[in-house]
Amino acid sequence: MENKDSVLFGQKDAYVNDKTLFDTYVEDLGLSVDKLKGKKILDLGVWHTGFAKEAEKNGLSVVSLDKQFPTLNQNIPFINGDMTELPFADNTFDLVLSRASFTVIEFNDVEQIKTILNNVNRVLKNGGEFRFGSGPISITPTIDDFKRVEELRLRNDDGEILSGIEKQELEILNKKMSIDLKHSLAFMYEGIYFNEGREDESSKKLVEESKKFLAKYPEMTATKLAEEMKQDTLSLLQEINPNITVFDGSPDFKPFDDYYFVMKKI
């Protein structure tokens, strides 16, 4: 069943109860209790340790990590830490999970993503997997990024020949700007989806302004935008680690598909 509060990037209800959260994890991340048995599991960016608590009832071993909450449910293995500096030895876990956390981080550059993926890969055992999602990764340009793009474009427009390094820099920055624009368009679609039909003036104004903004990009339908964002994210991730693949989640979440990623340690 579709959840209007979480359609855009496939996020389902954050928390109902431990069992519901556990079942949602398992379904979304393409797992099963049988696949989890006998594995040492790390859950990143948990917000709530309900998954680990319910997993324990099923005889599973889960360590939860989040930098925001030093304690949640008692008597559950919990680490107050950061994805960029995982406090575990190499080759510790069979499976690392991150549902609705890694892909919602507002990154500023690819190096930040690479740091997390390399850290996860380090703590995975050979043959282990990192399953994460859902939805696209966002890379938000900084003010310095915008200034640099403007400088390089002006120089290029004035007939100045950019160096090979500068051309590569401009290409990277243009890609970052494109990803950011697509996220802005997606949020416009989300605003329309959530607010169209409501009678209050603020909702009407939001829908009107969103439609006006989207009209500048008539070729970018919701379906096309969702697919491009999916492919952009997969390409970005595979540039860091070619052993990352994507799989579709629930088909009920429209207009943007629910999808997840798997990074396997070879």
Quickly list its features:
alpha/beta, 266 residues, seven-stranded mixed β-sheet, globular, 9 strands, Rossmann fold, 17% strand, single chain, two-stranded parallel ribbon, 2 domains, disordered N terminus, 8 helices
CATH architectural label of the largest domain: 3-Layer(aba) Sandwich
Structural class: alpha/beta
Mean pLDDT: 87
What's the N-to-C terminus distance?
A: 37 Å
Notes on the protein architecture:
The chain is of the alpha/beta class and 266 residues long. The chain has helices spanning 18-28, 33-36, 50-57, 110-123, 143-157, 164-195, 201-214, 222-240; strands spanning 40-44, 61-65, 78-79, 93-99, 106-107, 124-133, 138-139, 244-248, 259-264. Strand 1, helix 3 and strand 2 form a beta-alpha-beta unit. Helix 5 crosses helix 6, helix 6 (164-195) runs antiparallel to helix 7 (201-214) and helix 6 (164-195) packs across helix 8. The radius of gyration is 20 Å and the shape is globular. Residues 1-14 have low confidence and may be disordered.
What is the secondary structure topology, with strand pairs?
Blueprint: H1 18-28, H2 33-36, E1 40-44, H3 50-57, E2 61-65, E3 78-79, E4 93-99, E5 106-107, H4 110-123, E6 124-133, E7 138-139, H5 143-157, H6 164-195, H7 201-214, H8 222-240, E8 244-248, E9 259-264
Parallel strand pairs: 1-2, 1-4, 2-3, 4-6, 5-7
Antiparallel strand pairs: 6-9, 8-9
Helix pairs in contact: 1-3, 5-6, 6-7, 6-8
